[in-house]
Design the sequence.
């Protein structure tokens, strides 16, 4: 398993283009506390996604922050990204691992008990549980898990794979980030609370600070 600093996953979604250049937004987050950047685009062509992922990768050069591509193993390979984040309908993690190699970072979405068991058995480097709260950033047919639901799935994974980082996603802001960490999250994945904030740099620092403060309470 690759070591992943999953304290703050800044998700650069294609819907943010009205807020600014995606590569520039990613770099701003990376320089102000994001520990992972994830590029997500559900609508663009493969060629456009490869070009955009390559631009984000170039913008992150020198930051030490890895770039993951949501869903698309082919785009990650073509753009030279550091890994992928996979959902339940995407390529199987074992197949992605064969294609991307042992050094690639592979993450997996967990929404229920079956997903948790899949994450336990899969060759992944982290899992992300959600949606924890309601969010406007993504259409989600499932009801929010809430912190209790998150904690139950987190405990299930921790019992079988205690070293696996597990994040929380959906509706996370600075206040909720700390609460999620206190219920077992290794960190949080965020879109709006960073990239829709009036000051992206300050919002990133606030979220990272909230995560670090909560981690300091659970890991003295």
Sequence:
């Amino acid at each position: 398993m690759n070591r992943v600093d999953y304290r703050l996953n800044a998700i650069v979604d294609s819907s943010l283009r009205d807020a600014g250049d995606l590569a520039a937004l990613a770099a701003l987050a990376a320089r102000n506390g994001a520990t992972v950047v994830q590029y997500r685009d559900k609508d663009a062509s493969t060629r456009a996604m490869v070009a955009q992922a390559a631009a984000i990768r170039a913008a992150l050069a020198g930051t030490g922050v890895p770039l993951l591509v949501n869903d698309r193993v082919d785009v990650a390979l073509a753009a030279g990204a550091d890994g992928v984040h996979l959902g339940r309908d995407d390529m199987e993690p074992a197949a992605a691992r064969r294609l991307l190699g042992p050094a690639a970072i592979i993450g997996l979405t967990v929404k229920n008990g079956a997903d948790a068991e899949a994450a336990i058995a899969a060759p992944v480097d982290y899992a992300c549980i959600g949606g924890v709260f309601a969010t406007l950033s993504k259409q989600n047919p499932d009801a929010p898990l809430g912190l209790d639901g998150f904690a139950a799935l987190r405990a299930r994974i921790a019992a079988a794979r205690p070293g696996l980082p597990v994040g929380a996603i959906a509706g996370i802001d600075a206040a909720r980030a700390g609460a999620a960490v206190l219920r077992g999250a290794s960190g949080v994945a965020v879109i709006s609370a960073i990239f829709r904030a009036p000051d992206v740099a300050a919002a990133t620092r606030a979220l990272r600070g909230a995560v670090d403060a909560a981690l300091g309470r659970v890991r003295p």
Q: What stands out?
A: The first helix runs from residue 22 to 30.
